[in-house]
Design a protein that fits this description.
heterodimer, A: about 450 residues, mainly alpha, D-Maltodextrin-Binding Protein, domain 2, four-stranded mixed beta sheet, B: about 300 residues, alpha/beta, Rossmann fold, six-stranded mixed beta sheet, 10 helices, about 30% strand, elongated, transmembrane helix (chain A), ABC2_TM (chain A), transmembrane (chain A), membrane (chain A)
Amino acid sequence: MSKLPLIIKREYLAKVRNKSFIVMTILSPLLVVGMAALVFYLTKANNEEKKVIGILNEGNFFRAQFKDDASLSFIPFRDISLEKAKDSAQHQAYYGLLYIPQGDHIEDVAEHIAFFSKESPGLSTLSSLESVVRNQVREVKLRNFGVPDEVLRDMGKNYEINVSNFTGEKKLRGINEIKAIIGGAFGYLIMMFIIIYGAFVMRSVIEEKTSRIIEVIISSVKPFQLMLGKIIGTSLAGITQFLIWIVSAGFLLFLLATFLGVSMGELGGSQIPPDALDTVNNMSGGAQEKVQLYLMELLNISWGILLLSFVIYFILGYLIYSSIYAAIGAAVDNETDTQQFMFPVIMPLMLAIYVGFFSVFNNPHGPIAVAFSLFPLTSPIVMLMRLPGGIGAGGVPVWQFAASIALLVVTFLGIVWVAAKIYRVGILMYGKKPTYKEMYRWLKYS
Amino acid sequence: MSNLLEVSNVSKKYGQYTALDDVSLHVPKGSIFGLLGPNGAGKTTLIRIVNQITYPDKGTVMFNGKPLQPEHIAKIGYLPEERGLYKSMKVGEQALYLAQLKGLSKKEAKERLQYWFDRLGIGDWWNKKIQELSKGMAQKIQFVVTVLHKPDLLIFDEPFSGFDPINANIIKDEILHLRDQGATVIFSTHRMESVEELCDDIALIHKSRKMLDGKLVDIKRQHRSNTFEVGLDTTNHQALRTALEERYAVSDAGFKSLSDELKLRIRLQPGHSPNDLLHDLMSQATVTHFVELIPSVNDIFIQTVKDSDHE
């Protein structure tokens, strides 16, 4: 039928020309990038402020151990009383005063070290001070036992366990997490898209109902065509908006990076969980060849399969949810009535994201991950988090992938059929607040 | 083939609710057909079935001699009672879109829109948004969109609602003009005076069933009660009235006239002819007024609905 393209075109243009849509399209990247810049700036400003701590050391221990670092700087007081030192620290607006008493044994001294400050000191400051004390006490005691210097030096060394699979191939630490993040990003994209543009579909259906144009239209086209055209038109508008966002946000970030000298890694860093960040830090401190290994590993992800499955899961998942949204829009008279139906729609999406982040990241092939990547309402998100591990050996078993897609297709057909029925009856019903029972009855109408 | 539309034994249920129960009717080609009935009688359901918005559970609908098919949609123009337009779309754009949905090419649609916009004098609305127009103005656009694709069958559900008398008249003339050009019109309304004025055939639906249908004159003939309104110029009203009451069923009449005559409504027994009555009256008084009481559509409507409710 040549009417579908007409409907798609109208829906697309109606959406794209909408003022609030245009404003959102332009403003969002500015807002996002602006926020990122602001957060970055604030974090930097916060870190740059050094905490000045006065030290009054009356004994012989800890003479050279408290050294300035990125966040703390120490100013020694000499030959004054504790009371005077406190006064002085307070007057000069120091962060605090560290008092180290006199004593014969380092342990006694350590036990009586005190910290004075106006506000109670930050935990990180305290713990860094404490670790200096702890290390020094240990070193002095070991020395007293006659442990030679080179042994002491070696004791600080870190050991990393080498990871490899049973055939001896080397594995990288944290690579699973990185892969899950990549998959998770795809899944998250699907969820955002469904929530934003599904609601657009719903609102557009409600608009047709309230403006009473619906009966005029469906005397020319089949309701199903109208619903499909609406969903496709709206999603094309959505894709347009997303592309504009990605391109312009990328451009703005690039500008920002050039002007502020901010590296992309720093900006993105805050979103990566600490585990993975550690790995990244370790590796930058470690050998250069490791970076290459990670890059190799990332390139080894079967991007073809991943992108293809993204497209499949995206289309099917989006169609399922947006036809549910369309059916809800058809069943109600105004947007306030949609509330009762929204929760059951949003819930599986939320569940998928949370299960994904808490369970799939740690154990991508555990029972929960498998169950949720098979269940059709959550599989588009959860399965994508598992897929960067590949399909087949070491990744998602082939049968699970096949079953997940098959279940999704069956559900897709079923839900679109049900939604189309509810839509067809609902768009011509006015003035009734629908119940689930009523909607069930509509299914039986011919 | 003299009937454009033939509905045979159509039934439709929504769950437990019966919207149409074994309804049959036929719409002659080139006629204006009045589809009447109280609210909730099933008119809209029937119209939706003809428009293939919904489908009958039982029965058949023939369009121009063939079973109703999806391609017939392009040959039907439907102005629903619940009607509207996209509020934020421009008039011209919207009319083009709706016309194209009915199967017109863009070029064709543009030409015909130009013609109609000129005809109705609304050419300068093309770039306005619907939300800037008044209700009556929007109704005009809707009328144009309904008739634009030159459908064989036009279905108007309360076409005059929202129009002032002047514009209602314009639309009425356009409907008659379209009929003269060969279109068949189904006309659903509660305004009985426009049914009286426009319709050749009618059908009355009540409580999901067809109560009566046929040519309007035939139906009126069936419902006539052989009653005449007479005006009699006489000196003694009471005496004449008493004399007449002995032979006929007499009641008061309330027509308007210039003089103060005796106004009566006289019902004849079967077998009596109007001439007999006239002769009789002329022998007793000067007859100033003599007219057969033809039942109005309004009377027939109310009578039929009341009778069926009492059954």
